[in-house]
Amino acid sequence: QGQLVESGGGSVQAGGSLRLSCVSYGYSYNNPCMGWFRQAPGKEREGVASVASIGSRGGFTGYADSVKGRFTISQDNAKNTVYLEMNNLKPEDTAMYYCAAADRPTYNLWACDFRILERAGNWGQGTQVTVSA
User: Fold this and answer.
1) C-beta separation of 86 from 19 below 8 A
2) By the 8 A CB rule, do 102 and 116 touch?
3) DSSP letter string over 14-27?
4) Is 91 helix (H, G, I), strand (E, B) or coil?
5) How far apart are CA 114 and CA 96, in angstroms?
6) Are strands 46-53 and 32-39 parallel, antiparallel or unpaired?
7) Enclosing H/E stretch for 39
8) Which residues of 20-51 are buried (b: 16+ CB within 10 A; e: fewer)?
């Protein structure tokens, strides 16, 4: 079983930016689907962003409506790293952010979304993001 290690969390004021990183170790996925989730105190975990590659045709991403236009997910396959660039942060973005990973079947490389990542159950330890007003 592999390991996901997040970093980059911190405390910022509203309107500020942070960049989260997640390095994966030991996963032997042929077609990885990667993503970010978050959980605020007293709230359920929610998907934030997901990303997957489609060979030489590039990749595709998915975002929660609450972060569209402010957050950008990207990946560096050579470094086994996925990033979450967060701009114009709001107090409601305050949460523990978790990296998630899943494999996609070769017959359906478009199978990468929050439900699939939740079902795979591969999580990092989390990194705290706190946004003050």
Assistant:
1) yes
2) yes
3) TT--EEEEEEEES-
4) helix
5) 17
6) antiparallel
7) strand 32-39
8) bbbbbeebebebbbbbbbbeeeeeebebbbbb
- pLDDT per residue, tens digit, the chain (133 aa), is 789 999 999 999 999 999 999 999 988 888 899 999 999 999 999 999 999 987 766 789 999 999 999 999 999 988 999 999 999 999 999 999 999 999 988 888 888 999 999 999 999 999 999 999 9
Residue 115's contacts (CB-CB under 8 Å, 6 or more residues apart) are none
Cα distance between residue 121 and residue 100, in whole Å:
7
Q: How far is CA 36 from CA 3, 56, 104, 107, in A?
A: 15, 24, 17, 24
User: At a CB cut-off of 8 Å and minimum separation 6, what does 29 contact?
Assistant: 101, 102, 103, 104
